[in-house]
Amino acid sequence: MKRIFIFVILLVVIFSGCGKREVKKKVVSATIFPVYDFVRNLVDGTDIEVNLIVPPGESPHTFSLTPGEVKKIEGSRIIFYNDFGLDEWIISSAESVGVKNIVNVNRSLTPINNNPHFWLSIPYAIKECEVIKDSLIKEFPEYKEVIEKNFIDYREKLFKLHNRIKKSIDKLETKKIITYHPAYLYFAREYGLNVLSVIENSPGKEPTPKKVAEIEDIIREENVKALFIEPQLSSSVVDGIAIDTGIKVFSLDPLGGTPGRDSYIKLMNYNLNTILEALSEDCGC
Description:
Elements: H1 2-18, E1 27-30, H2 33-42, E2 49-52, H3 67-73, E3 78-81, H4 89-96, E4 102-104, H5 122-139, H6 144-170, E5 176-179, H7 185-191, E6 194-198, H8 209-222, E7 226-229, H9 236-245, E8 248-251, H10 264-279
Parallel strand pairs: 1-2, 1-3, 3-4, 5-6, 5-7, 7-8
Helix pairs in contact: 2-5, 5-6, 6-10
């Protein structure tokens, strides 16, 4: 009798184990904060988790994944990235842990000089959100209605922000600026700023003395009021330019994710307010 009882227990354990199906985790990842925030807004109200790969305060241009961080993206159902020299390093890392659904959010866009910073133009950010929406619905069809509604609501918020930025910058008397690296190409083109020069054409490649002299000449000849650095990149060369020319230095943030800039909308409002402060006639520049 005892043997029969043990046999029955073993059968229950075996067949209950066979009946279990592996449940896929509902996790997606994004390389940079703006894209992470787009995804986060679109999956609101679902149980999809969103993982940010590049920590706030670091630059994707110079970032490298540690083995522990590679492990963190394992199991992601989708990884969203930007391409064009910003974060292609994610592809090999993702494939090494078996992630095959790697989505380029800019796949419908044509870059200027391979510049990856599309998200700083809100119309382009909306196009990125469309790619994200379609990819999420394909992977998680059970959330189709929720994701589509979130997209419509978020797109409306972005359109309002776009109009506010455009109207505010239109009112400025001067729109000439110098930036640290070419992050604001699409922003400037969209909103009417005139980027006369950049200090570093590539992150980490400091300008030559000749380049610095040319920038200082532009500042004096064009009466440029503001030079914009970025919190993610070293900017030691800027101090000398500021001393030589008297130009005021401000910080624009292309990535965000830090306190006060912990959403894409807050980030864009921060950048707008910084530009208005730097270029307004009463700023004392």
